[in-house]
Design a protein that fits this description.
Blueprint lengths: L37 H10 L11 H14 L4 E5 L2 H12 L4 E6 L3 H4 L4 H4 L4 E5 L8 H5 L12 E8 L10 H13 L3 E6 L2 H8 L14 E4 L10 E5 L8 H7 L8 H11 L3 H20 L6 E2 L7 E5 L2 H7 L6 E4 L4 E5 L6 H16 L2
Parallel strand pairs: 2-3, 2-4, 4-5, 5-6
Antiparallel strand pairs: 1-7, 6-7, 8-9, 9-11, 10-11
Helix pairs in contact: 1-10, 2-10, 8-11, 11-13, 12-13
Length: 366
């Protein structure tokens, strides 16, 4: 059977696609706004061509298991999925029964930024606890860990924490260990939403296993999109005895990719070497640079610890609104005027210095 010959010097087919944006323009709205790391794009090209078995039976996904086990231990098993909400919903469903509930911080992504998916798609009741810094503690868990024999109450079965939190804070390994020990004593499993897990490891200066496997976490959602991937996250099972029907749950939750090699090879590029750590460390460093720059601007107050790649600040609303015409970022709290500035793997020192100068300029022209 004849096959069409490649077109062009590199074998690339001609394209009618047109670039619709300026690739030199970057903002501070979200690390999801960033493009794809060149090393990840190269890996995608490497995986292209020829045929591989679909639905995760390919060689790239098989090899990915070895990569994750080097980071999380010999019992770890990775299940690539499309996105972070899907990863969280699949992971939580695998730990909870139909009448189960999940204890989480009120600010958790699963509670405020997933469109009700854990409850609508996963059928899970969320029991939320207000926290000052986005972090749960054993004492805060106890506020909702009760009524285990009450048939009128959704039964607490899972604790979900976020690392780093939605407020930019970072759990220490000891904090997670204490939380996991307490949860397990109550018969609860522990899920970690790790959409920015690489940023946490970079901040803590410890291996990924130090605050996951070694601390007692049972399952986690491993983020890739916020750290230079085109798309894709992974559900990583650390305690196989606590989960059920992962493959079935992934499929019925519409998270099973047919051409999974193109998800898996991205994670191999990220995790086989140190790309994950280099990218996260750079994003964190840019956030610290921004924090240092704006602290010298009168009228700007950094209101939360900068422990990863996020800076939270309060400044006059009219200044923020003028700045938003020049740089993309979001209001975090409309009432107080708090804004969030996110840095990415591709944020440059020039980006930071230019933004800081714009803030100073707008503040001085009030």
């Amino acid at each position: 059977m004849a096959h069409p010959a490649p077109v062009g010097p590199a074998g690339d087919a001609p394209t009618d696609a047109v670039r619709h944006h300026d690739p030199d323009v970057r903002g501070f709205a979200s690390d999801n706004y960033a493009g794809v790391h060149p090393e990840v794009l190269a890996a995608l090209a490497l995986a292209n061509g020829g045929h591989q078995v679909a639905y995760g039976e390919d060689e790239y996904t098989a090899h990915l298991q070895e990569v994750f086990r080097r980071h999380f231990g010999p019992r770890a098993e990775a299940f690539p999925v499309f996105n972070g909400t899907g990863a969280n919903v699949v992971a939580l469903q695998s730990l909870a029964q139909r009448w189960g509930a999940v204890i989480c911080a009120a600010s958790a992504h699963i509670n405020v930024d997933e469109g009700g998916a854990p409850e609508r798609v996963g059928g899970l009741k969320l029991l939320t606890v207000p926290t000052p810094d986005g972090k749960l503690t054993p004492e805060l868990i106890d506020r909702e860990a009760w009524g285990f024999d009450d048939e009128h109450r959704a039964q607490p079965q899972v604790v979900s924490i976020t690392q780093t939190t939605e407020l930019g804070t970072c759990y220490t390994p000891d904090e997670i260990r204490a939380l996991c020990d307490h949860a397990h004593q109550l018969g609860l499993a522990v899920h970690l939403d790790g959409s920015r897990i690489a940023n946490a490891a970079a901040t803590l200066g410890v291996p990924l296993a130090a605050f996951t496997t070694d601390a007692g976490v049972d399952i986690l959602s491993f983020g890739g999109t916020k750290n230079g991937l085109l798309f894709g996250e992974c559900v990583v099972v650390l305690s196989p005895e606590r989960v059920r029907a992962m493959k079935h749950l992934r499929k019925l939750s519409m998270q099973l990719a047919s051409k999974m090699r193109f998800v898996s090879v991205q994670f191999e590029a990220l995790l086989a070497g140190d790309l994950w750590l280099r990218s996260a460390s750079h994003a964190n460093a840019m956030a610290r640079r921004l924090e240092a720059a704006v602290r010298t601007v009168e009228g700007v107050t950094v209101v939360r610890p900068v422990q990863a790649n996020a800076v939270f600040a309060i400044l006059p609303r009219e200044v923020s609104e003028r700045l938003q015409k020049r740089y993309r970022f979001y209001f975090w709290d409309e009432a107080s005027g708090e804004v969030r500035w996110m840095c990415s793997f591709d944020t440059t020192e020039a980006d930071i210095d230019g933004f800081a100068a714009a803030i100073a300029e707008e503040m001085s022209s009030r």
